[in-house]
Amino acid sequence: MNGYLLAGFLLGAGLIVAYVSAAARRGSGPRLETAAGLLLSAVGICAGVKVIKICVVAGSLAPFADEDRVYIALGGLALIWVSCQTIWNGLAGRPSD
């Protein structure tokens, strides 16, 4: 299994445990869609890190031009941002925007 994917699953499992305990403290039941969103967002953070790392480290991004590195890295940053926002809202018990 890919190291980034494994890290995402482990992070996601930890977030789900935190979410279930927070829901229990609030007196509300955990929702499956929120737990699934937390897992996917954790994997999304790791994927975004991998995209940025590839843009910084890789010698060639064929078939893309070298100047496309910035746009691809910004896509990775956006993936991290949206994933963090989803995690924040999920743990706070708010619906995602």
Describe the structure.
- It contains three helices and no strands.
- It is mainly alpha-helical and 97 residues long.
Task: Compose a concise summary of this entry.
The chain is mainly alpha-helical and 97 residues long.
Protein traits:
single chain; 97 residues; mainly alpha
What is the number of helical segments per DSSP (H or I, 4+ residues)? Answer: 3
What class would the helix/strand composition place it in?
mainly alpha
Which range best describes the helical content: under 10%, 10-25%, 25-40%, 40-55%, 55-70% or over 70%? over 70%
Number of domains: 1
Strand content: under 5%
Residue windows where pLDDT falls under 50 for at least 5 positions: none
Instruction: Spell the H/E element sequence.
Output: HHH
Distance between the amino and carboxyl termini? 32 Å
What summary fits the major beta sheet? none
Question: Mean pLDDT, rounded to whole units?
Answer: 91
What form results from the Cα inertia axes? elongated
Radius of gyration: 16 Å
